[in-house]
Amino acid sequence: MSDTPHRGYGPSLGEGRTFTCSDPRHDEAVLRAEVNRVVRALAPYRVLSRDVLRREAGAGNWHEPRFERALEAAVEQGRIEALPLGFYGLRHDERRTS
Question: Nearest 5 degrees, angle CA 15-CA 20-CA 26?
Fold first, then answer.
């Protein structure tokens, strides 16, 4: 088990520290949930700017790396696509399942 904190995951302990979770399955489950939240937030609009998507996903309370990681994972998984000028769009196949 690692003592390295997974920054951005778990409750805040103040002064930039966060709860340490050494279970990679937990981290994967958290990331899946956050990706789903980003995709659901985008679904009604189909296209949003990064900042508006962050707000609609309720990520204003997330630590910055968590939103960036979820957004990047959603793009890598093909669930959303990065568009020019900082916009993101729902992939065609996600429109049917959202």
Answer: 135
Q: Per the structure block, which two tokens stand in for 78? A: 């093909």
Q: Residue 8 and residue 26: Cα distance in Å, rounded?
A: 13
Whether the full predicted model's pTM is greater than 0.85, yes or no, is: no
What CATH number matches the domain at 24-97, 3.40.30.10, 2.40.40.20, 1.10.10.10, 2.60.120.10?
1.10.10.10
One-letter amino acid for residue 19 of the chain: F
6-57 tens-digit pLDDT: 444 444 444 444 455 678 999 999 999 999 999 999 999 999 999 999 999 9
